[in-house]
Design brief:
40% of the residues lie in helices and 16% in strands. The protein is an alpha/beta fold. It starts with a helix and ends with a helix. The protein binds zinc ion.
């Protein structure tokens, strides 16, 4: 692995533009269960409960069920960024990562200090008002839900608020998607971390990058058959810090 690691680090340090794509595998190391894996959250909570249709029909029930799911997620205590999040923030700070595209909604990349972030599925750290469109910090909404005041409401217009994430049945944010696509087309290096590349449209981004000549680096515990230039079939919290260290001292 060391030879490939130092070659991947060289590709990163020589690139003019680097784009990273992260998925659930980066969050699991922080204790956030993978929704899709065996024993994952969707075996315990019905995905249909979190469909946009359900939110519109029954926002009270939606928020109650969401609280129940989040109590499961956070049952282990506080969730903080891990070494993979920190390594990516470090790469950005050192000028070796231009934009980070993530499928995760937990806000941990932002918490770790990554500034240039495209959150394809939105962020659970905010809520959005269904009436006036205002975005706000999610904490007051959660306080209201925990106190039994469901559904939580907008501070400006008293409209019902929704988590600022892309729910099942909602379309992907077009601006974020088109930015992600043009970045994939134009970057020199495309780094994929902790994504099994099974969920569209993020799944096609590495192929777009490769077709347009980018060097691809793939770090994921379960190899899913994406034919990257450099593949590390290992934990992101192991590989990414070593990669960042190798870029620092080539
Ligand atoms: Zn409002």
């Amino acid at each position: 692995m060391d030879e490939a690691l130092s070659q991947a680090a060289t590709a990163l340090s020589e690139a003019d533009s680097v784009v990273a794509l992260t998925g659930a595998g980066v969050s699991t190391a922080s204790g956030i269960p993978d929704f899709r894996s065996e024993g994952g959250l969707w075996e315990k909570h019905d995905p249909q409960s979190f469909h946009f249709r359900r939110f519109r029909a029954d926002p009270e029930g939606f928020w109650r069920d969401r609280l129940s799911m989040f109590e499961d997620i956070y049952a282990g205590g506080d969730i903080a960024p891990n070494d993979a999040h920190h390594a990516l923030a470090e790469l950005e700070a050192a000028g070796h990562l231009d934009t980070l595209i993530t499928q995760n909604i937990d806000g941990l990349h932002r918490e770790a200090g990554t500034a240039n972030l495209i959150e394809l599925h939105g962020t659970g750290a905010e809520v959005v008002c269904m009436d006036c469109g205002e975005r706000a910090d999610a904490a007051p909404a959660w306080d209201a839900v925990k106190a039994g005041n469901v559904p939580p409401r907008c501070a400006s217009c008293d409209g019902i608020v929704k988590p600022a994430v892309v729910l099942f049945g909602e379309s992907m944010p077009e601006v974020a998607m088109s930015r992600a696509h043009s970045l994939a087309k134009s970057c020199d290096v495309f780094l994929i971390a902790g994504s099994s590349l099974t969920v569209e449209p993020a799944a096609s981004l590495p192929h777009v990058a490769a077709r347009h000549g980018a060097t691809t680096i793939y770090v994921n515990l379960d190899d899913t058959g994406f034919d990257a230039d450099y593949t590390f079939d290992a934990d992101v919290t192991d590989v990414l810090p070593r990669l960042a260290a190798a870029v620092r001292k080539p």
